[in-house]
Amino acid sequence: MFLKIDNEARLGLTSGKLVKVPGGFYEFCFRRIPRTVCRAIEKLLDLGDIYAMGFAWKGKLFGSASILTRKGTQLVDQTVIETFIYQASVALQRRWAEQALQEAHDQLEIRVEERTRELVEANAQLHAEAVKRKRAEETLRESESKYRTIFQTTGAATVIVEEDMTISLANAEFEKLSGYSKEEIEGKKSWAEFVARDDLERMKEYHRLRRTDPDAVPKNYEFQFIDRKGSVKDIFLTVNVIPGTKKSVASLLDITERKKIQEQ
Q1: pLDDT digits (tens, 9 = 90+) for 223-258
Q2: How many independent structural domains does the chain possess?
Q3: What share of the chain is helix, strand, coil (3-state, %, to 5)?
Q4: Which domain covers residue 120, as residue numbers?
């Protein structure tokens, strides 16, 4: 329990000396017990003067020791008593300081344990995510390798076309069909460069609509293809947008010879 005391009493208690408590037992009890009861206690115990000395640390009061004398007796060896109270005060301060240090140490250990646990959990989560990401990358590489193999070994000339009509990937059959090498085609040529003038505007419109309204354009149709030498070839085209992208994949089948036979 903490009791409020006035400045004068505080100065007396923190002086390092035993001071007489004025007002008897009533003031000693900080006026918390009725005066009539205090007088009865004084009479019952035959109380005389009351002395008090505070436990102080750096000018701050954290407790006190009191000496109650019998009526008619004098306080003797006051200096010895003051020394004893001072030593008790120092011992209490040391004990409380050690207790506070231990509490701080315990709290620090708790925080360290909590932080260590958080770091372990975070590390485990990062490790799991890294493993998951590595597996996804491996799966993606396997898929890319598989589809690239299929793309390169399919029997038809095949290209991947970007939204801006640039050919970003061409297989060996398209090299044969066009007369250009992959290095000359990929990222450098537009598919429009291989289309005859009469088919060009129609196919450009197909290209645009295929990315906004895929059902509005055919996936298969014929057009005339111009190769490196300027030769015109009849082509049956199959084209579609790659899901989740703006790219399209186109497969070109040379039907020139078949059409010549049909026309004969």
Answers
A1: 999 999 999 999 999 999 988 889 999 999 999 999
A2: 3
A3: 50, 25, 25
A4: 85-151
